[in-house]
Specification:
- The complex is a heterodimer of chains A (198) and B (468).
- Chain A has 198 residues and is of the alpha/beta class.
- Chain A has a single domain, classed as Aconitase, domain 4 (Alpha-Beta Barrel), CATH 3.20.19.10.
- Chain A is built from eight helices and seven strands; from the N terminus they run E-H-H-E-H-E-H-E-H-E-E-E-H-H-H.
- In chain A, helix 4 links the parallel strand 3 and strand 4.
- Chain A is globular and about 60 Å long.
- By secondary structure, chain B is α/β, with parallel strands linked by helices.
- Chain B has three domains: 163 residues, Aconitase, domain 3 (2-Layer Sandwich), CATH 3.30.499; 90 residues, Aconitase, Domain 2, CATH 3.40.1060; 172 residues, Aconitase, domain 3 (2-Layer Sandwich), CATH 3.30.499.
- Helix content of chain B is 32%, strand content 16%.
- Chain B has 16 helices and 19 strands.
- Chain B has a five-stranded parallel beta sheet, sandwiched between helices. A five-stranded parallel beta sheet of chain B has the order 17-16-15-18-19, with helices on one face. A four-stranded parallel beta sheet of chain B has the order 11-10-9-12.
- In chain B, helix 13 links the parallel strand 15 and strand 16.
- Chain B is globular and about 55 Å long.
- The chains are: A alpha/beta (198), B alpha/beta (468).
- Chains A and B meet through helix 4, helix 6, helix 7 and helix 8 of A and helix 2, helix 4, helix 6, strand 8 and helix 11 of B.
- The complex binds iron/sulfur cluster (SF4).
- The site of iron/sulfur cluster has 14 residues of chain B, from helix 5.
């Protein structure tokens, strides 16, 4: 996971509401046991025709979209299945932040665990971004701000610990492991046992 | 301070380290359910870091998503014959991972193999007050028991395997009150579809829903599971129902529940979980179902739903809606009734239990599936299969011309060999009508088991109230 403090890029705009994770990575690509190479499945049914040729009018296929790191999506991005393959594939494509007016809970958590910054902005900012594909935007993780080319600034919320992990490029596991003694004490003190071998 | 809600009681009981401004809570997970699709990367991570599974006896493992639904007697000999190489590889990886990390696997040959959310309750591993996670968003199903069940991604699967905990902020709470007596032919699936239609696919984002009210109290456990199952389709973290006598009777005598004195103590603890009368919620919604009709979806998310006799709404200039009904090839301003059907799928963690199969059998008994329709009926687990066969339901299904398959997720998602062909329309009892969910180019209409059965017989989308 790369450290991300601040990110400036032109945007790719996908102006569709309620994009579910079945679109981001269709189920037939979930038979892999690895995480590498999942990028080819990103939006497979929207990006390619049935013979595997790129569809010219899909925003991620535009020549100028290549190398851009910020995806602006319609409202409620990432709903549906909990498959982490979705943020893996988006990250693999080179995108490091997704901006919407709403992002589904599980997808948001999965993104934060993989160095992909989920950014929820107010509806006015969101509308402006949807209407201005290719705008050069800065996502400042440290300041929790999105800065638009006209100087306007929108703030966004990000869970402080997840933000810390993203900025340092570290996994949240370390914090859990530091608390192992407390977890053990919790288990010893509780009044019932959740073991399946009752 | 007011009283506590069911969710707050379960939450508070599982906080190992409270949240602070800088750090989320360390939150304890009682039961971790795993399957072959969302775990291999997590097991790889454990291996790379030299870590163990901390509590293998709190992990319930099965295989359901990529498994074929034709019989496999022997993994080594028959798997390759009925499966593509990649899913077969994933299934073998699951067997190895469970063996390497000391986890009991309910694999082929186990009478408890089945869909993750079907077998948890069935063996009594799902219990009131437990926190339950799975790398699958429909983990909300387990909330029907007053447990807190929610889906997680592969990284978090790794966190739970290694520490039995997750890092979490406390979600908000939402009460959904369901009142009124259901008409014949209208059931739990129609209630949850109508609710999602009302609040939208993001209506529950950030919240844990508690379903309350006289209608919910009157449902059996399997119907309650149907409702909690689809909670995630409203974007909510989890959906819960307070334990009551119905819950206790369902669990009594199941394999994994406490026995003897411990059972009495557990029942007492479970019954105290109900929300206090003065508990407050961040949001509240009431749904009166007395006049509810069977519901069918017309678009490509579960909130795009209409009462079966009502016309499909006109999308106007809403581009997302127009794209969706274009994909579905349905006409605006006309009802879905009478639309030609190619496939009918009865199954999935939403509707593959005995209540569902019996309701389907009532309609299929003495009737035939229309010539233009392929009907698949897929039990949620091996034990559901066995019981259905003991009751003779399989005979009714096959006599009607339906296919009776082995347990699994089957055509709920296009990743095993049961898939829709391009352009085919399927009336499905599953939970997602996303584009291509049941196979690339497939068109899914979500409905209740009764509506699915009535449509199979008619060959077109049909109203079950006319055949019951
Ligand atoms: S039946 Fe469908 S929704 Fe349920 S666990 Fe399987 S794939 Fe997921």
């Amino acid at each position: 996971m790369e450290k991300i403090r601040q990110l400036t890029s032109q945007t790719i705009v996908l102006p569709i509401d309620d994009v579910d994770t079945d679109q981001i990575v269709p189920a037939r690509f979930l038979t892999t046991t690895e995480r590498e190479g999942i990028g080819v499945s990103l939006f497979a049914d929207w990006r390619f025709d049935k013979d595997g040729n790129e569809l010219a009018d899909f925003p991620l296929n535009a020549p100028e979209a290549q190398g851009r790191q910020i995806l602006v999506a319609g409202r409620n991005f990432g709903c549906g299945s909990s498959r982490e393959h979705a943020p893996w594939a988006i990250y693999d494509f080179g995108i490091r932040a997704v901006i919407s007016s709403e992002i589904a809970d599980i997808f948001r958590n999965n993104s934060l665990n993989n160095g992909l910054v989920p950014v929820v902005v107010d509806t006015a900012t969101h509308r402006w971004l949807l209407e201005n594909p290719g705008a050069e935007v800065t996502v400042d993780v440290e300041a929790c701000e999105v800065r638009l080319p006209d100087g306007k600034v929108a703030t966004f919320e990000i869970e402080p610990f997840a933000r810390h992990c993203i900025m340092e490029g570290i996994d949240q596991m370390g914090f859990l492991l530091q608390n192992l003694d407390k977890i053990e004490a919790f288990e010893q003190n509780r009044s019932w046992n959740p073991s399946l071998n009752v | 301070m007011g009283g506590k809600s069911l969710f707050e009681k379960v939450w508070d009981e599982h906080v190992v380290v409270p949240e602070t401004a800088d750090t989320p809570a360390v939150f304890y997970i009682d039961l971790h359910i795993i399957h072959e699709v969302t775990t291999p990367q997590a097991f790889n991570m454990l291996r790379e870091s030299g870590m163990q599974v901390r509590k293998p006896d709190q992990v319930l493992a099965t295989m359901d998503h990529s498994t074929p639904t034709v019989p496999i007697e022997n993994l080594e000999e028959s798997l390759d014959a009925v499966s593509d190489p990649e899913p077969a590889n994933q299934i073998r990886a699951m067997v190895k991972n469970c063996a390497d990390f000391g986890i009991e696997l309910h694999g082929f040959g186990s009478e408890h193999r089945g869909i993750v959310h079907v077998i948890g309750p069935e063996i009594g591993a799902t219990q009131p007050g437990k926190t339950i996670v799975c790398g699958d968003s429909h983990s909300s199903t387990h909330g029907a028991f007053g447990a807190m069940g929610f889906g997680i991604g592969a990284t978090m699967v790794g966190h739970v395997l290694a520490t039995q905990c997750l890092l979490m902020r406390k979600p908000k709470s939402m009460a959904v009150n369901v009142t009124g007596k259901l008409k014949p032919g209208v059931g739990a699936k129609d209630i949850i579809l109508a609710l999602i239609g009302r609040i939208g696919v993001d209506g529950g984002t950030g919240h844990v829903i508690e379903y309350r009210g006289d209608t919910i109290r009157g449902l059996n456990m399997e119907e309650r599971m149907t409702i909690c199952n689809m909670t995630i389709e409203a974007g909510a973290r989890a959906g819960m129902i307070a334990p009551d006598a119905t819950t206790i009777e369902y669990l009594r005598g199941r394999e994994k529940v406490p026995q003897g004195d411990a059972w009495d103590a557990a029942v007492e603890r479970w019954m105290a979980l109900a929300s206090d009368p003065d508990a407050s919620f961040d949001k509240e919604v009431t749904l009166d179902v007395a006049e509810l009709e069977p519901q069918v979806t017309y678009g490509t998310n579960p909130a795009m739903v209409v009462p079966i006799s009502r016309p499909v709404p006109n999308p106007g200039d809403n581009q997302s809606y127009r794209k969706s009904i274009d994909y579905m090839q349905v006409a605006a301003d006309k009802p879905m009734l009478g639309t030609k059907v190619d496939v009918v799928f009865v199954g999935s963690c939403t509707n593959s239990r005995m209540t569902d199969l019996r309701n389907v059998a009532k309609i299929l008994d003495g009737r035939k599936v229309a010539d233009n329709v392929r009907m698949l009926i897929v039990p949620g687990s091996e034990s559901v299969k066995k019981q259905a066969e003991q009751e003779g339901l399989d005979k009714i299904f096959t006599a009607a011309g339906a296919e009776w398959r082995e347990a699994g997720c089957s055509m709920c998602l296009g990743m095993n060999s049961d898939k829709l062909g391009k352009g085919q329309l399927c009336v499905s009892t599953s939970n997602r009508n996303f584009e291509g969910r049941q196979g690339p180019g497939g068109r899914t209409v979500l409905a209740s088991p009764e509506t699915a059965a009535a449509s199979a017989v008619a060959g077109v989308i049909a109203d079950p109230r006319e055949v019951i």
